[in-house]
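job 3f2a | input accepted
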Amino acid sequence: MSMSTQDRSPEPAERYTVLDEREEKAAHTKTPMTFGDTVTPYHWRFDPAAHDEIYIVGDIHGSIDELKRLWAQLTPSGDDLVVFVGDLVRKGPASIEVVEFIAESPHAVSVKGNNEMKLVRETVETAPFEPVLETVTALPLVVSFGDSMVVHGGIHPEWELVEHEPDDLLEMRSVPRGNSYDGPFWFEQYTDSPRVFFGHTVLSEPYVSDSAVGLDTGCVYGGELTAYDWRRDELVSVSASGYQSRPDRKILSI
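job 3f2a | predicted structure (254 res):
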C-alpha cells in the first residue's frame, strides 16, 4: 500500500543534521540505501562520524517509566544519537509522555511504527493522542547511518530496497509479508547489507545476527525494554512492569 493522502513528507527538525544521498555516499557508506518514490521522502540519513555514541531502542508502547530508567542507563549527552524503532504509542499508559520525551530530547529520533501509522491514517481512535498527532505524523519511515538501517517491521530478504512500499517496512514479519508468528521470518533469511535494526516482532530475547537485530522484547507485556549500543556491539536493557498480557504463541523464542 502506498502512503495515504493524510501522510505528509516529514521535514527533519532543526536539531538533526540529515544527509542527502550524495552526502551519504561521500560519508563512505559501503552500501548507499536507495528506496522508491513512496519511501525516499521518509528516509533520514545520518553520518555516524558526527555522533559519539549511537543507540537503537526497541518498542516502548507508552511505557514511560521503563523509558526513563533505560535513558538513565544510557545517559546520552553531547553528540550522541538515540534511534527508536517505532511503536512509541498505544497499549501502555503514557503514550503522550513517551512521544513528548523523545521529541524534546536533542539526542533522539524515532521511525514510525505501525501503531503511529494507525493514528496517521485514523484507523483507530485518535482523540486521546491529539497532543502528539502532529509529532508522530512527522516521523520518518527509515533512519540510516553508516551501513545500518532502522525500520519498524523489516525488509523482504529477496527484494531490493527500491522495491519496498511503506507498509512493507512497517509490517514485515513472516515471508510472504504478514503478521503471522508462524514464520518463516524475514530476519532469519536475510543475510545481506545493510544491517537492519527492527521492532514489531515480539521476542523473548533480542535477536542479533550480522545482518539483523530485533529489539522488541515485549516491554509493554512485562518483558524488557532493550537498547543496542552500536559502537560497542552490546545490549542494554531494563525490566518492565507490563501493562497488557499476550499469548505465548505471539512471543517469539529463537
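job 3f2a | Residues 1-13 have pLDDT under 50 and may be disordered.
job 3f2a | closed
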